[in-house]
């Protein structure tokens, strides 16, 4: 199933999800570094990483929802997509709460509750990332139907030469 919205031939949702996931994971790393070093610059970095991740997460959610609407209802892909989407909304919500718990503190120093929210959020993100991988790599969601090891560039018109296609079994 090809994605509904693409940029230069590639689905937008998978391009966008790397940003919030990377930003959230990096914020957790900076929190751990803060705990171990007591360097008071690190919580500020975490705070802004989470803020940027929240923006990226909401943007990725929009394109994910559009792709979800194109899936056949009650298919395995549709059902996994629901879990994937709800899980990711939960991740964004947990990081939002963590961000809000830091907002009014001097130098954005996280309280234990903010740290726990982030750590639970990143744990759930690991599950939702696996679900996303299952959707793409196992169920073929957002994969071009003409994809194969010899497919032409997405920037060119597809060649329907039978020698360039590999049979799918």
Please explain how this structure is put together:
The chain has 169 residues and is mostly helical. 64% of the residues lie in helices and 2% in strands. The chain has helices at 12-37, 42-69, 76-103, 112-138, and strands at residues 6-7, 10-11. It has a two-stranded antiparallel sheet. Helix 1 runs antiparallel to helix 2 (42-69) and helix 1 (12-37) runs antiparallel to helix 4. The two termini are 16 Å apart.
Structural class by helix and strand composition: mainly alpha
Q: Percent range for helical residues?
A: 55-70%
- Beta-strand percent range: under 5%
Distance between the termini: 16 Å
Side-by-side strand order of the widest sheet: 1-2
Q: Any idea what the shape is?
A: elongated
The H-and-E topology, N to C, reads as EEHHHH
Per DSSP, the total helix count is 4
Q: Which radius of gyration do the C-alpha atoms yield?
A: 19 Å
Poorly predicted runs: 159-169
Largest sheet: 2 strands, antiparallel
Would you report the number of β strands? 2
**Mean of residue pLDDT values:** 89
Domain count, please report it.
1
């Amino acid at each position: 199933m090809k994605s509904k919205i693409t940029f230069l031939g590639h689905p937008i949702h998978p391009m966008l999800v790397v940003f919030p996931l990377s930003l959230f994971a990096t914020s957790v790393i900076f929190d751990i570094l803060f705990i171990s070093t007591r360097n008071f610059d690190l919580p500020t970095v975490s705070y802004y990483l989470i803020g940027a991740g929240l923006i990226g997460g909401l943007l990725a959610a929009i394109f994910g929802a559009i792709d979800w609407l194109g899936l056949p209802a009650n298919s395995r892909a549709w059902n996994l997509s629901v879990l994937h989407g709800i899980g990711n909304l939960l991740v964004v919500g947990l990081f939002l709460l963590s961000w809000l718990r830091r907002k009014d503190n001097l130098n954005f120093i996280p309280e234990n509750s903010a740290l726990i929210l982030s750590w639970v959020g990143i744990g759930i993100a690991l599950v939702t990332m696996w679900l996303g991988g299952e959707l793409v790599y196992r169920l073929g969601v957002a994969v071009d139907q003409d994809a194969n090891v010899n497919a032409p560039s997405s920037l060119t018109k597809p060649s329907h030469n039978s020698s360039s296609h590999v049979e799918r079994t």
